[in-house]
Amino acid sequence: MATYQDDVEGGCPEAGGRPGQVAAPSRGLTSTLAGMLAIVALTWLLSLVVVAPIGFGLGLLALHDGLVGAVIAVIAWSGSAGLVLLRPVEARFARLLFRVRRPSAAELERLDPVWRRACARSGDDPAAYTLRIEEHHVVNAFALGGHFVAVTRMALDLPDDLLEAVIAHELGHHHDRHPIAAMLGWWYLVPLEALGWCLRRVRAATAAMARTYSSLRRRAGYISAGRAAGGALGVVGLLLLAGALVVVGVLLLVALCALWLPLWLVTSASKILSAALSRAAEFAADRHATALGYGASLTRVLELFLHDGRHRPPRRRGVTALLASHPPFQARIHAIQRSEAARPPG
To answer: What is the value of pTM for the model shown?
Structure first.
């Protein structure tokens, strides 16, 4: 049984791989990675539209200098992305976003040899990654940040060669640094998502105030018909409430038209581009695994997915198809077959 240090699974076996196989090196800045980083840069710029005004306001309150506060906020926010790529932070995010846990002793005994073989064949040090189990009732795996790989508990039921192919696919993502770009994009999107949440709450509050206004107006009409004083007080109350509604409505209108609508249009376009790049990243990770000799095994895994209703995604059309993060299984199988045919013999 292997021993593991802290959050890191595995030791460091010699990176020789199987006979006749050459470890695939990192390909540096690929076109897919360049596109993903461009989306990250755009998302970062858009996030400053939210972060800078907050920093300006806090600067006025704490430092009596809004400009200094805005600069500090922008620098701190921009640098915060480096923190989410730290291994302990990645592990914490994975626990928050996914149902992941450490492998049990039995799972470790099952997974460790396969994990070591895949890392050796890919030219990776197993100690460079954090390996976890996701509690999910389908066969799946994912890569996160710069060091995180997870496989589902159901994936452990696969034969060794198929499980090895799945892991090699995830290592392919890390070789091309796709998970780093995805993590940065997700992080810089947080202020925009928070702004959207706030605007939805404002709309809900405005609708509630409008309902209250309508109810009070009817009630004031009943009261004023019988008592002049009560009717006057009711009119004053309604005027105050109407004034509050006007202020909230104007602020909401300005926020929607001057800030949120352009941001929504740009972020929607960036999400469509991000989904297209995510699909390209899946093809690239498949090519990585195929180059290591896992093409046949990966094809068998995808064929299992293709015939298993639990893995079959709903039929997508229009915008939903553009937002799909993974290409269809059949398209991936055809791409792997083309890569296999293009591989030199031996």
So the answer is: 0.79
